[in-house]
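job 3f2a | input accepted
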Amino acid sequence: MKRNGSKYTLLLGTALLGLYFQANNAHAATTDSVANDKQPVAGNVTPMVQTNKDEASTPQTTTDWSDPVKYQQDIPVQILGINDLHGGLETTGSATIGDKTYTNAGTAARLAGHLDAAEESFKAANPTGTTIRVEAGDMVGASPANSALLQDESTMHALKAMNFEVGTLGNHEFDEGLAEYMRIVNGGQPTKQYNEAEMAYPHVASGINIITANVVQKTDGQIPFGMQPYLIKEIHTSDGKVAKIGFIGIETTSLPILTLYDNYKDYDVLDEAETIAKYDKILRNKGVNAIVVLAHTGVSTDKDGNTKGNAVDIIKKLYQIDPDNSVDLYVAGHSHQYANATVGSVKLVQAIYTGKAYDDIIGYIDPTTNDFAKDSLVSHVFPVLSEADAPNVKTDANVTAIVQDADRRVDPIINKKIGEAAKPGDILGRLHNTPTRENAAGELVVDGQLYAAKKAGLPADFAMTNTGGVRADLHVNDDRSITWGSAQAVQPFGNILRVVQMTGAQIVDALNQQYDEDQAYYLQVAGLHYTYTDQDDPNQPYKVVKVYDQNNQPLDMDKNYNVVINDFLAGGGDGFSAFKNTKVVGIIGQDTDAFINYITDMTNEGKLITAPVMNRKIYMTAEQLATADSKGSVVNNDQDNQPATGTQTGAASPNKEVSQPTPTTPSVVLPTTAGQPAKVIQLSGQIAPSASRADSNNHFVNLTPTTLNNATHQTAAKKQAALPQTGNTENLAWILLGTSLMGATGLTIINRKRKQA
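job 3f2a | predicted structure (757 res):
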């Protein structure tokens, strides 16, 4: 039995190792075949995600397109796509695609020229080919003035000139209600009075077929406004071939936290993956196997080649529901990022936002199967290059004329001076956040909202706004003037401001809700300042521990305070459920008007506009809080976030530039890493008067931005960042177990031989 036991142990160890390697090889083989051959994926196997490299800047210089010669019996099809245009008729900026960053990318006229050039390149190689232009939502909303003042109808004119055929709903299509969006899509007359420029603007049907499969009316489960869940396009070639391609439209299920309650309350948004699976099967039953999903769901491919996001998760769930699905292409939107990958056998793309890039996908449909031929579908994302960078690409004259006409119509409104800044230079917004998620334009906005409430006779204690509603830097001209257009670009939505009643506990809840979901949604605040620190909760790694009003008094958890919020937040927008069902004290008006009037009033009072000092959110480690407490500052570390008593210097009047608060211990904010908030390090010395600090020799040191920067970099250089653990620990356990059993067997055999000798 002893000898047999050794053999069995050896066999068991070998078997465990064999099972491990067999399982991993089988998994790799399965996912590889899915990615390359469009074979079904077993329901218990997650489809592999492979990033597709975009190294070329134009379709003409791309070398991996499928060879048309191999597919002469098939039908060439090109899909050109965009997402999240946001009325960006003249918007330019940087576009990072793959490993390259392109500057001065964008504008609608350049986009039109690039789409035309891409189509010409495709047709040159495929004379019988068909090009279909599609969009994945958010064509409108949060738009610059030359679109917003015309109810985004100028954007619809431009899309019509670019021959877009199929589109779906994004969350911003709901900004003024779905009825208003469908009016501008269909070219109907305005149903209410707008500005003179909009009322005189030509109302023309866009020609875009808007499809949505998962937005249904709560009353009867039907898709609203006669929209269809899918569209089947029949393709006829000049040489007599016929094929069909299907498009399914998908809205994000996050819609309820992304738009006003009144705009979505009548609708249900059904699960994305379940809806895709449903209509994929319907299309296949109709003989359509080449299927494209247009979905306003986010995804991104980072610089290390990792592709992840909601769209990836949806495709993976689709495979779990239906391993035999026939989805070939998924055109994503919403997250404003670049992406190009293959998930299972589905090509997944997203072309940044505001017309800075476009999707270009080319494949060949087998007319006998109505599906894309094996290995024929290739996807790319290309930048919309400026004339200087791509002089061979013509700027579209028709779209240029549409934009110039829109500019001419709105110029009298947007160029009107409304105020003056203390100095030239833009006041920066959310693309220039501090590590604690503050930005100057955002805090200027909430300062203005707090002012607007008091001006309206509705005294408010605090104001808060979602940073997603602060859309741009506040542009200040060289002569220090600020125009209507500049202010409107910062606050374009026209959300209604209301004053609501909230307890101190509810306010702390709202502030804490910034720190879930990796801080994807956060607030700009006025009238209060607070300190937050770490907590051992992966779902919410930070908690608020001290909150003070502008008089440096701690919040009373049971006291009622008046808070200015917009109606987007009042409906629980961006996941801020703490604002829902709060008692309305009064209505102020539109946020756009409040911001414009604030700039005008401050200027008239001689208080020229200045970027606020961003000191309203202070991060401290537990050690710093304890140190501050030991030196006499009142710190509360309990789990209920009850504010402590005591004083701390803080935010000043919202109408003037605020001064830096004096923390109990000198500190420096370390830069954020991996999307996490800043870390704060203590500086030696005692607190000096004003904004000075004492060094180790008791010499007072002014903590200027330069001083802070140097301290930050010196400290960061000394810290060794912990590397994330990689590998599969479960797999490692199997290897160790198998190896250990084999090793134990070997030792047993050796020992037995020694005894026999």
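job 3f2a | Residues 1-11, 14-42, 633-757 have pLDDT under 50 and may be disordered.
job 3f2a | closed
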